[in-house]
Design a protein that fits this description.
The chain is α/β, with parallel strands linked by helices. Helix content is 45%, strand content 18%. It starts with a helix and ends in a 5-residue tail after the last strand.
Length: 314
């Protein structure tokens, strides 16, 4: 009996030792996790910063908007970097993108990193973010709206072609490349552009904390370098993605150890004919001018809903 009692006592002492060892190991692990979290060195599996590229001509892109909604709802995405390299695009495209990013920013911090060009509609994309970073030589600004059309009347006269039309009212499909625009057509077109321009200026004033007079002074259509944009308050700081991540860490507590993952829209396979149709549909009468000197941006002239004439910006 004495031997059994001693054995039982030894077993109890062993269990107590094992319990203390296990408790100590768990406490040490918890302490290590706390230290890692405090130092920003612990990254949960799947956690990331999403990189969204805004490049080329900005149009009303449903697939891109859907992707931004998905990012907003993805718990693994802790912040978003907008990598912008765009000369601009359509007014509606820039408006839709701005609204989508602002909705996203209600759930995740968003920082814009400007590349070679982020002008006009590209700058509107930057305005949608919470913080703007640009290179010193980035070309930005170009705050304004432009409407252009080719005047083909003289060319048609030379080749012996006369365009005729029957329309419901004098201002239908005006201005028209086949004849000189009337003063009334120019006035109506200017009024339309002024409306979009005032919207653009309001965005600048609201998002950059400027008064209306300062926004209008800076928004005379000129372009700025990144250095000039920082000096004028259109951009927050100089740098690139490194500075953007540092801002996320300092202002929002986002770990700078998080990987940056590229997100790209998923487009349906619509074939060549479908792509051509979508391209025609995305071409716009009113476009934001975004340094498109070398970009053949299409516009459309609509007659009863039919796209009939294409012409480049410049």
């Amino acid at each position: 009996m004495s031997l059994d009692a001693d054995t039982l006592a030894d077993r109890r002492r062993l269990k107590r030792r094992l319990f203390y060892w296990r408790a100590g190991a768990i406490a040490a692990l918890v302490l290590a996790l706390i230290v890692l979290l405090a130092e920003g060195g612990f990254v949960l599996p799947g956690a990331q910063i999403a990189r969204v590229s805004i490049s080329g001509i900005i149009v009303d892109d449903r697939a891109q908007q859907d992707m931004l909604e998905q990012i907003a709802e993805d718990g693994n995405v802790k912040a978003v970097i907008l990598s912008i390299d765009s000369p601009g695009g359509t007014t509606t495209g820039a408006e839709a993108l701005f609204e989508s990013v602002r909705n996203l920013s209600e759930k995740k911090p968003v920082v814009a990193v400007l590349g070679t060009v982020a002008a006009s509609g590209g700058y509107i994309a930057a305005l949608s973010s919470d913080h703007i970073v640009a290179r010193g030589n980035t070309i930005t600004g170009s705050i304004g709206v432009i409407f252009q059309w080719a005047q083909l009347e003289g060319l048609l006269d030379n080749i012996g072609v006369e365009m005729r039309e029957v329309k419901s009212a004098p201002l239908k499909a005006e201005p028209n490349p086949f004849h000189k625009a009337s003063p009334e057509a120019i006035r109506v077109t200017q009024t339309m552009l002024d409306t979009s321009y005032e919207w653009f200026l309001r965005l600048v004033a609201e998002r950059r904390n400027m008064d209306a007079a300062q926004a209008r002074k800076l928004g005379d259509g000129r372009i700025y370098t990144g250095w000039q944009a920082v000096e004028n308050g259109l951009v927050d700081e100089l740098g690139g993605e490194k500075q953007a991540i540092a801002w996320l860490a300092s202002e929002h507590g986002i770990s700078d150890k998080l990987p940056v993952r590229d997100w790209t829209p998923v487009y349906p396979d619509i074939g060549v004919a479908g792509f051509a149709g979508r391209a025609l549909g995305e071409a716009a009468v009113t476009t934001i001018d975004g340094l498109t000197g070398k970009t053949q941006q299409a516009k459309r002239l609509t007659l009863d809903g039919l796209t009939s004439v294409w012409q480049p910006d410049r």
